[in-house]
Input
Amino acid sequence: MISLPQVALRNVLRNGRRSMSTTLSIMLSAITILTFGSFMRYVVLSYQTSTVERVGHLALYQKGYNAFGAGDPSAYGIPNYQRVVDTLRADPQLSRLTRVVTETQAVFGVAGYYPAGTSRTFMGDGVVPADRATMQRWNAYKIPEFDVRRSAVRSDDPESGVIGTGLATILQMCAPLDLRWCAAPPPKVQAVAADESQFESLRALDAPATMAAGGAKPRIDLLAATASGAPNVVSLNVERAEFQGVKEIDDAYVAMTLPLAQKLVYGRGEPRVTSIVLQLNDTADLARAKKRVLQIIRQAGLSLEMRDFTQIAPLYAQTTSFLSVIFGFVASILGTIVLFTVVNTLQMTVVERTNEIGTLRALGVQRGGVRNLFLAEGLILGLAGATLGLVVASLLAFAINASGLTWTPPGAAGRVPFRLYFFEFPQLLFGVWIGLVAIVTLASVRPANRAARMEVVDALRHV
Output
């Protein structure tokens, strides 16, 4: 006796042209959704990796800093920060989750390059070089290494630092830093004489340190207001210029060692830090780490506030949300196309097979049996299309990943491999496969009910 699946399969194969067009539409929808979804996953994880490398997962600030600190960072520094850092590092629960606990100091002021007579407002960070190097090696998702160099802030030279390539261009430091791609500045329309007397007197305060380097590296002077409001100047040995990914940041960025930043901001006063940064081993532990850090803050009675990396870098949350909306929109459109294609195919099949339906009913097949037959045909079409789409999409992903293609995503500091995170994201594969099969089966319900409701006499009139 022939079973229901065998009959359904025979009917699908008998209507080969229509079944093939329906299967192809399901397959193409699966390929599109899987390809776009795996690419979106790669972009999101790459963006998360670059963000976590730069700002960590969590940061602690003095209360009020995020609202007012950008205008006066010295007034919102964390006092006795080393005690807080030691407490976080010593906590047994938190130590299992964290990779790095480090301090940073935000700096704002004016950068000047005396040999060229140029200056520019800057923003920067004072960092612990060893901790920053460890943070930049975070790669929990095994993203292929970007074709960029690591930060050159040196721990053996407390006066070393790095500037953005845009800032180097503005300060006309291309030749000293051997930036061969820099364009030569156009002739000045009018040379305005500047009163150097005040700046020279400030530079004289830092003259011993400036002369000690012996000019081995190009140096810039950084001018900022100390915590007391008095201006202060330090000199920075520029190791090299590094592109920061975003032009607005690249045109003003300076990274230096933490002691040099504290010297610039606090002078001879008590050194503080702007933030204490925690980088976790895995982003999945973020909620647990936040809960434990809050407990430590309350127990110690500290006046600190906490932000995670999605709040520190809001563009990350906006970008991932935007990509999710696009993916949902594309998947909805393709799912709707599949739905109507299958409905149309099975509706036409019902019309063409009215005599067959009447014969089946006359032979004693109940309405439920007719309904199940058409549902089984829809299920076969869905399984075939979704499976073919999964196979073709996997071959396409393998070919793209092995092709060596590169691209420059928004905010990246250089070209990166163009990849599809296909096999690394199995949830997407199973989700799309099951979703398409479910949509096709759902689309079969209406034609199946229509076939089941046919009266035997009316159906047999078509014989």
In short: The radius of gyration is 32 Å. Residues 206-214 have pLDDT under 50 and may be disordered. The first helix runs from residue 4 to 14. DSSP finds 19 helices and eleven strands in the chain.
